[in-house]
Amino acid sequence: MPKGFAFNCVASFAMGSITNEVALFSFDNAVFALIPGAQIELGFDVSHWTPNPDELESWKLTANECGLELSMEEQIESATLRKRIVTIPPLLMEACAVEVGWQSVSIDEPEVRAIVEHLPKGASHFSSISNSNRGIRVTRDEFGGLIGLCCMNRVKAR
């Protein structure tokens, strides 16, 4: 295991009729699932697929709206890779989705206060690019309080 990871437990996860036992690890207040390595088939063979009526209708609308000239099958074939066997090594994947790249900033900063003044009633979050070219976001915590966030790449650039 990479340095700093600690084993937590083995837990059962189900999707539909499939249940798997998954080893969970912790690192820096986050939970990671161990994805075992395997040889798997990736890719798509459009010649073994028949679109259903809903898919055909949806494609007609999309093709007309976007000015696409290829058939659905030609478009899919151009956007997918051929079927092939690949080896995926074991890996750790964070078990809960989180957004990275934002750093807390004081709710009292002038740029944050300016966003708060225009925050629509009942809005859970609101984003803005302020005049100083910092990406600023205001969101609410689980208790309804306001949290100010700043895009980290812009913070580092300053």
What does this entry look like structurally?
This protein is an alpha+beta fold and 158 residues long. It is built from 4 helices and 10 strands, in the order ββββααβββαβββα.
Shape descriptor = flat
Strand-and-helix sequence, N→C?
EEEEHHEEEHEEEH
Main sheet overview: 4 strands, antiparallel
Determine the fraction of residues in helical runs and give it as a percent range.
10-25%
Counted by DSSP, the helix tally is 4
Low-confidence stretches: 154-158
- Strand order in the sheet with the most strands: 1-2-3-6
What Rg is obtained from the alpha carbons, in whole angstroms? 23 Å
Distance between the termini: 36 Å
User: Helix/strand-derived class?
Assistant: alpha+beta
Average of pLDDT: 85
Question: How much strand?
Answer: 35-45%
Number of strands: 10
Topology:
Blueprint: E1 6-15, E2 18-27, E3 30-35, E4 38-42, H1 53-66, H2 72-79, E5 84-88, E6 91-94, E7 102-105, H3 110-117, E8 125-129, E9 135-140, E10 146-151, H4 152-157
Antiparallel strand pairs: 1-2, 2-3, 3-6, 4-5, 7-10, 8-9, 9-10
List keywords for this structure.
single chain, 158 residues, alpha+beta, four-stranded antiparallel sheet, 4 helices, 10 strands, 23% helix, 39% strand, flat, disordered C terminus
